[in-house]
Amino acid sequence: MHQDITENALYMSYREFSGRFSSINNKQKALKIPCQFCRVWHILVFELFTVGVKGDKQKDIKEASFLRYQMKKYYLDASIWIDLYENRKGFNNEPLGDFAWKLFGLIKASKNKLVISDFLVRELESNYSIEEINGMIKPFEDIIERVFVTKKQKDEAKILAQERSLPPGDVLHSILARDNNLILITRDKHFVQLTDISRSYKPEEII
Length: 207
Prior knowledge:
The protein is α/β, with parallel strands linked by helices. The chain is built from nine helices and five strands; from the N terminus they run αααβααβααβααββ.
């Protein structure tokens, strides 16, 4: 019961934070309000992963978590970000939103890196405004790492996409994951044909 309450509070705080940040136009407020929500959200993340644990045991769990997931870098495709932001369900009512935010929470609580690329941002721009995208990213800014697509990567993606009859964007994501040693998270079935470039995982395979 306690964990359910914590999970709901965590997700609602993320939605409230991202929504408020994306709607703020005043620069002074933009600097002040997100920091308050970041602190609350970070506390809730740690609370979720240490439910029922106190004192030295809680400290041990935190340290073990950092060692287990030390220096891992995750690259989540646009659909996973959308699952989180929209709290989406799958065709068979799978809790895609729940899977997504648990993964985001695990990455943040473990102090790993969440990698975003300029290409990923462009994909999100087809569904959201820049303000909304900034709101999505803001709660994770302390673990965000940015990468940028090179011409060489674009050219390779174009060739492989033609050879395998795959969307160039999916191929490019795989190449970015390979070249930057990232753990690629996606649900797209096309990535099954790209395991020789970069292996991919679903959120529920990680959490």
